[in-house]
Amino acid sequence: MTPSLYTAARLVAQRLLGSEGGGTDRGVGHGELVAASGLRKPTVHRLLTALLHNGFVEQNPRTQRYHLGPESHVLGVLAARRFGIHRLSLPSLAKLGRLSSDAAFLTAR
């Protein structure tokens, strides 16, 4: 992937994942993705088609706006296993349990 295409694809992903984009109830429009990425409309369309086909985004049939799809959730869950607070806290929790001779738990909401 060329640097400019990589940057544009990153911008499309950021717009889809951002707090004002596809991760919200509002969603994000095709034109917004074109403007944010600087890519031509057909290129954005091809990217979205691939993401749609693989379940990473969904398109609202009424508004035609794009939202994150179920596969995006799966990726988030998998990433949370690797980078989540529970995994990062395990060494400290184990040490706390040893030092206190008691059980140590972490609860997150």
TrEMBL record:
HTH iclR-type domain span: 2-70
InterPro entries reported for this sequence: HTH_MetabolicPath_Reg, Tscrpt_reg_IclR_N, WH-like_DNA-bd_sf, WH_DNA-bd_sf
GO biological process: negative regulation of DNA-templated transcription
Protein's recorded name: IclR helix-turn-helix domain-containing protein
Taxonomy, superkingdom: Bacteria
SUPFAM superfamilies reported for this sequence: Winged helix' DNA-binding domain (SSF46785)
GO molecular function: DNA binding; DNA-binding transcription factor activity
